[in-house]
What we know:
Layout: E1 2-6, H1 10-21, E2 25-30, E3 44-47, H2 51-63, E4 67-70, H3 79-88, E5 92-95, H4 101-117, E6 125-132, H5 142-152, E7 159-161, E8 169-176, E9 183-189, E10 194-200, H6 205-218, E11 223-225, H7 227-231
Parallel strand pairs: 1-2, 1-3, 3-4, 4-5, 5-11, 6-8, 7-8
Antiparallel strand pairs: 6-9, 9-10
Bound molecules: NADPH dihydro-nicotinamide-adenine-dinucleotide phosphate (NDP) and the ligand O=C(O)C1=N[C@H](C(=O)O)C[C@H](O)C1.
Keywords: Amino-acid biosynthesis, Cytoplasm, Diaminopimelate biosynthesis, Lysine biosynthesis, NAD, NADP, Oxidoreductase
EC number: 1.17.1.8
Enzyme class: oxidoreductase
Amino acid sequence: MKVGLIGYGKMGKAIENILLKRGHEVVLKISHTPTVEELKGVEVAIEFSKPEFAYDNLKVLLENNVKTICGTTGWLNKQGEINQLTIANKTAYIYASNFSLGVNLFFELNKQLARMMNKYLNDYKINIEEIHHTQKLDAPSGTAITLAEGILDNTNLNTWSLDETGDTIIPIEAKRIENVPGTHIIQYTSNVDTIEISHTAHSREGFALGAVIAAEWIWDKQGIYTMNDVLELN
Ligand SMILES: NC(=O)C1=CN([C@@H]2O[C@H](COP(=O)(O)OP(=O)(O)OC[C@H]3O[C@@H](n4cnc5c(N)ncnc54)[C@H](OP(=O)(O)O)[C@@H]3O)[C@@H](O)[C@H]2O)C=CC1
Ligand SMILES: O=C(O)C1=N[C@H](C(=O)O)C[C@H](O)C1
């Protein structure tokens, strides 16, 4: 597979290592919005850049029929437009707030626990905590937002918030600590006990491997997909 890396930072470099180990060719690695000329020969693009650049990058990629994997978080208000561009250009696109197998299993566990807890939310108060390295630009993390959405879809709770509290709000606490690749904790606390589930990434390797597996999967497809499709989780 001939891959273009759009965003050659911490994740771009981790993804390159895995692509090369799996026998793929990295034909482009840039830290700017690609030009049409640069995209010639790119079969699949993997976009891990910064929140403010993701939309422009994805627009160029999809308008040039490049199949695209996007892991950049913190820009999702324009996801609808990107989905429309994917369909209009008959190409293929996967976004995931987290590409690791472990977190995608954790997303399913979170939904199942939320379904069980819904009738006990008078007794148990929920909270989400996420911890990341100090260079992270967005808060809360994309993964924490996906976890909150999984809980909202399976309970009578109304919304999530970084700073507000209330009976129907899921509070998310975002901590920034040097060198932490990504930790997510969900707690249900009553007067007598706490139920807690957590996922701790030990490095960026799991995110990077998941993005490469998604690129390999989308290579011969058209349409909008998720990691649930790639990993056949449900
Ligand atoms: N979905 C997932 O599984 C994961 C998602 N992420 C997300 O991926 C993103 C990148 O993370 P990470 O690699 O750690 O961040 P880094 O800051 O290490 O890398 C971002 C890179 O993007 C480059 N860049 C700047 N402007 C542009 C542009 N216009 N187009 C393309 N690239 C550009 C930066 O270059 P320069 O330094 O010169 O500005 C930098 O090299 C973040 O949004 C993060 O939240 C991270 C891990 C896993
Ligand atoms: O910025 C990061 O590093 C990470 N970002 C993603 C997120 O916002 O959820 C995924 C992972 O937690 C690492």
